[in-house]
Write a structure and sequence with these properties.
alpha/beta; TIM Barrel; seven-stranded parallel sheet; two-stranded antiparallel sheet; 9 strands
Length: 397
C-alpha cells in the first residue's frame, strides 16, 4: 500500500478502532501493517516540562497548572507530548505501585485528550535533566539480568498498563528516558532485555508505538544496546540529537553544518546500521538554548535542524522542551532556557518558529531519500562516528 493512501484519523474511527488495537492518531492500520502506512506522516510535539514545579509536580499535584500548560502547548501546533514518570515515586517499593500517582497520570491523559494531544509515557525513568532518580532498592542487583529486577519491572509495567490501555490518546511507551545513563551493560545483554520488555509492552498495550529513547551513546560507541537491535526492534526508531552534548561544536559554530545537520546525519547513520534505508525515524529529543548560542539564533537553528531532518525523511519531531525551568531549582545552566515557552507560559520566538514549521509540515507524507547509504563506521567509537557523520554531511575535517 502506498503511503499516500494513509488513512487520516477521526474521532469515529478512534472509537471503532480501540478494540482492534489501532494506534491512536493513526486509525485504519493495526499493528503489524507496513510501517510506512501509518508512520510516514510528519508530526510535531514537545517533551513536556511542567511550567510549575518541574516534574516535582507528581508529588505536589495541581491539575489546573497542567491544563494551562496544555492549552498553550496546543497553541504551538503540537499534536503529541512525551512525559516522564519518575520511577521511584510511582513504584516506591518493589511490591507496591502508588495508586495516587496512577490517578494523577490518568488525569493528565484526560486533560491531554480534551485538547487532542497524544501522550507517549516514559516508564523506567531514573535519569532526567542531569539527575538520577533510581529506585532505592536492589541497588546491588544487575539491572538487565536479575530475576529480582525483572519481577519489579513487570509489576510496574502491568499496573501502569491497566490504567493507560483504555485511553485512546495513549500513544505508547518509551522504555525509559535515556535508560542507558543509569544502567549500563554489554549490548548482547541489553538487547535481550529490550526485546523482552517490548514483548510485554506489545502484549499489554497492543497497537501502540513502543520505543527505547536512548541518548546518542549507543549509536556512537559500544554500550548497553546495539544500533542493530535498536533498529530492528523498533517500528519507529528514536533519536536524541544534541549538538552540545555530542561535541558538534568541535567541528563548527552553532549555525554551521555539523551543528544544524546532526539530526539528519544521525538518521542516516542509524539506517546504515540497520541496513534499513526506509525505516521511519523519530527525532524524539533535540533542542538548543542561550547557554550555547545567542538567544536570537535559536529559532534559526531550529529551522535548519528541522528542515534538514525533513529532507532526510525524519517522520516525527519532538522538541525539548515545552517550557523553561524555574531558576529557583538547582539544575545545570543548560537546562533553564530550552523551552518554547517561559515558566509563565509566554511563547518565545522559538515557539513561534516551531508553530510555523508544524503548520507547514504536519500531516504531509514523509519523503525518504533514495540514494544508497554508505556502510556504518568500521569502528564504533566517537572519533570514527564523527568521521562518518562529517563525511555524510560533506564537511571537510
Amino acid at each position: 500500500m502506498n503511503r499516500r493512501a494513509f488513512i487520516k484519523s477521526s474521532s469515529a474511527a478512534l472509537a471503532a478502532g480501540a478494540a482492534l488495537g489501532v494506534v491512536p492518531g493513526w486509525t485504519g492500520t493495526a499493528r503489524g501493517a507496513p510501517a510506512d502506512d501509518r508512520l510516514l506522516r510528519h508530526r510535531f510535539g514537545v517533551d513536556y516540562v511542567p511550567s510549575r514545579n518541574w516534574y516535582f509536580c507528581w508529588n505536589d499535584w495541581n491539575a489546573g497548572d497542567i491544563a494551562r500548560d496544555f492549552d498553550r502547548i496546543v497553541e504551538l501546533g503540537a499534536d503529541h507530548l512525551r512525559i516522564m514518570l519518575i520511577w521511584p515515586w510511582f513504584q516506591p517499593n518493589p511490591r507496591a505501585v502508588s495508586a495516587a500517582h496512577l490517578d494523577r497520570l490518568e488525569e493528565l491523559l484526560r486533560l491531554a485528550a480534551e485538547r487532542k494531544l497524544d501522550v507517549l509515557v516514559t516508564l523506567y525513568t531514573g535519569w532526567l535533566s542531569g539527575f538520577r532518580f533510581t529506585p532505592p532498592y536492589l541497588e546491588k542487583e544487575p539491572f538487565y539480568s536479575s530475576p529480582k529486577w525483572a519481577a519489579v519491572q513487570e509489576l510496574y509495567l502491568a499496573e501502569v498498563s491497566k490504567r493507560l490501555v483504555s485511553h485512546a490518546n495513549f500513544l505508547g511507551y518509551d522504555i525509559g528516558n535515556e535508560i542507558n545513563c543509569c544502567w549500563s551493560c554489554e549490548p548482547a545483554e541489553g538487547d535481550a532485555w529490550m526485546q523482552r520488555v517490548f514483548k510485554s509492552m506489545h502484549a499489554l498495550c497492543p497497537g501502540r508505538i513502543h520505543v527505547n529513547g536512548v541518548d546518542h551513546n549507543p549509536w556512537f560507541k559500544v554500550t548497553t544496546f546495539s544500533p542493530e537491535a535498536l533498529m530492528a526492534q523498533q517500528e519507529l526508531v528514536t533519536l536524541h540529537c544534541w549538538p552540545f552534548w555530542t561535541g558538534a561544536g568541535k567541528f563548527g559554530k552553532h549555525l554551521d553544518t555539523p551543528y544544524t545537520q546532526l539530526p539528519a546525519a544521525m538518521a542516516a547513520l542509524a539506517r546504515s546500521y540497520g541496513r534499513a534505508p526506509h525505516k521511519p525515524m523519530w527525532l524524539q529529543e533535540f533542542g538548543a538554548c542561550n547557554a550555547e548560542m545567542p538567544e536570537a539564533d535559536v529559532p534559526r537553528w531550529m529551522e535548519l535542524a528541522i528542515t534538514s531532518g525533513i529532507n532526510q525523511g525524519i517522520s516525527w519531531f519532538t522538541w525539548w522542551a515545552s517550557h523553561d525551568v524555574d531558576k529557583r531549582f538547582d539544575f545545570n545552566p543548560f537546562e533553564y532556557g530550552l523551552g518554547l515557552m517561559t515558566v509563565d507560559n509566554r511563547i518565545k520566538e522559538q515557539g513561534r518558529m516551531f508553530k510555523r514549521l508544524a503548520d507547514a509540515y504536519r500531516g504531509k507524507p514523509v519523503v525518504i531519500p533514495t540514494q544508497p547509504l554508505p556502510p556504518p563506521p568500521a569502528q564504533r567509537n566517537a572519533e570514527a562516528t564523527w568521521r562518518w557523520l562529517l563525511d555524510w554531511m560533506g564537511v571537510k575535517k
